[in-house]
Amino acid sequence: MAFPLISTGIYGFPKEEALQIAVSTISQCLLTSDMQVYLVVFDKKSFGLSQKLFASGQRIHR
To answer: What is the pTM of this model?
Structure first.
């Protein structure tokens, strides 16, 4: 399964909020499903935000 950070480009939805929503949603899904998840970002800003998010203690749990 793959999904982009919808509306974070031209429509200006905040990338940090979109990443938090994605990680939260993935975490909830993993409570009932056993799967391996890769979080992939495509630009430097998103990469920096994802590093910050995970450094702050946000984790995806199974």
So the answer is: 0.68
